[in-house]
Amino acid sequence: MGEGIRLGSMVRADADHARAPKVLVFDSGLGGLTVLRELKRARPDLEFAYAADDAAFPYGRLSDAELVERVRSVMERLIGELDPDLVVIACNTASTLALPVLRSRFAIPFVGTVPAVKPACERSKTKRVSVLATPATVRRDYTQGLIVEFAGDCQVTLVGSERLASLAEAALRGESVADQAIAAEIAPCFVDDGARTDTVVLACTHYPLLLNRLQKMARWPVAWVDPAPAIARRASSLLGAPGAPRAAPIRAVFTSGHAPEPALAAALAGFGIELEKAAATAI
C-alpha cells in the first residue's frame, strides 16, 4: 500500500540566511496538524514539513509487527527525501511501538507522543480522569504502565473510541459529521460515581481537531488535555535557541498519492500548508 508519495510546496530558504533547522511532523493521517500548529507557535523560526501516511490510515488495523515495519519503511523514504534535523511522531499508536526501532535506525532525534496521564492526574480535583484514545492505544502495555506509574490516587477510565479519529478527518475534509456521532464516542468518558470525571486526556492527536465540538457535546464541563503544547516544548528544547521568525509555507507529503480535495486543501492552508497546483512529485 502507499506506492506513491505526493509532495506539496516548500518555500526555499533565502540564500542570505543560514538554513533553519527542519522539523518533520509525521502521523498516520491529519491529527498531527494539531502538533504542527503548536510547534509553529512555539518556534516560528523553524522550517517544517508534514507527512501523513494516509495510505495506511488508521494504524489501529495493523498488527504490531506490521505497524512497526510500515513506519520504519516510510520513515526511511521520508528522511532520505526531506533530510530533517528532528522528527516528531505525532501519533500515540506509532510512538508506543515504533520509536525504539526508529531511534536505533536513524541518527537524528525523535520526539514521540504518549497519553498525558501524569499532567491530567496532577491537575484533576475530583481524582476522576478519562483517557480518550484509539482502541490500539488503549490496549498497549505502555498505556497501562503510564497509569500504574503516574495515576497515583486517581481513578482512570480508558475509553477506546472506534470512530472519533475518522470523524475528525471527515470534518477536516469538509464532510458532514453529526453531533450525535461525536457525543456517542465521548459518552463513556463521563463517569459519575459520587465524584465526576473532571479531566479528559486527548490521547490521539486527531481529537483536538474537534475540540470545539467535544466541548459542546460534553455531558458536563471538563478539562480537555491536549499533549501538543508539551510536545512542542520538548522538540524546541532539542533544537537550541530560537532564531528570527520565518514566514515559510510548509511542505506536505501524502503517502496515498492522492492530492487533497479542495475543502481539505483549504483547511490545510489554515495550518500553513500550501499545495502546488501542478502535479505533485512522487518518491
Description:
- This protein is of the alpha/beta class and 283 residues long.
- It folds into two domains: 6-113 and 230-269, Rossmann fold (3-Layer(aba) Sandwich); 117-226, Rossmann fold (3-Layer(aba) Sandwich), CATH 3.40.50.1860.
- Helices cover 37% and strands 15% of the residues.
- The chain is built from eleven helices and ten strands.
- The chain has helices spanning 33-42, 64-82, 92-105, 117-123, 135-138, 141-150, 164-172, 179-186, 211-217, 228-237, 262-269, and strands at residues 6-7, 22-27, 47-52, 86-89, 110-111, 128-133, 155-160, 199-202, 223-225, 251-254.
- It has a six-stranded mixed β-sheet with strand order 1-10-3-2-4-5. Strands 7-6-8-9 form a four-stranded parallel β-sheet.
- Helix 1 (33-42) packs across helix 10.
- The protein is globular, with a radius of gyration of 19 Å.
- It starts with 5 loop residues before the first strand and ends in a 14-residue tail after the last helix.
- Mean pLDDT is 89; it is low at 1-17 and 277-283.
Task: Write a brief structural summary.
The chain is built from eleven helices and ten strands. It has helices spanning 33-42, 64-82, 92-105, 117-123, 135-138, 141-150, 164-172, 179-186, 211-217, 228-237, 262-269; strands at 6-7, 22-27, 47-52, 86-89, 110-111, 128-133, 155-160, 199-202, 223-225, 251-254.
CATH architecture of the largest domain: 3-Layer(aba) Sandwich
Percent range for β-strand residues: 15-25%
Query: What's the pLDDT, averaged over the residues?
Result: 89
Overall 3D geometry?
globular
Radius of gyration (CA) equals 19 Å
Task: Note the total helix count.
Answer: 11
Number of domains: 2
Distance between the termini: 14 Å
The biggest beta sheet, please?
6 strands, mixed
Q: List the uncertain runs.
A: 1-17, 277-283
Please trace the helix and strand order, writing H or E for each element.
Answer: EEHEHEHEHEHHEHHEHEHEH
Please identify the structural class as seen in this structure: alpha/beta
CATH topology of the largest domain: Rossmann fold
Please identify the top-level CATH class of the largest domain: Alpha Beta
Number of strands: 10
Task: Enumerate the strands of the largest sheet in spatial order, edge to edge or round the barrel.
Answer: 1-10-3-2-4-5
The helix fraction, in percent, is 25-40%
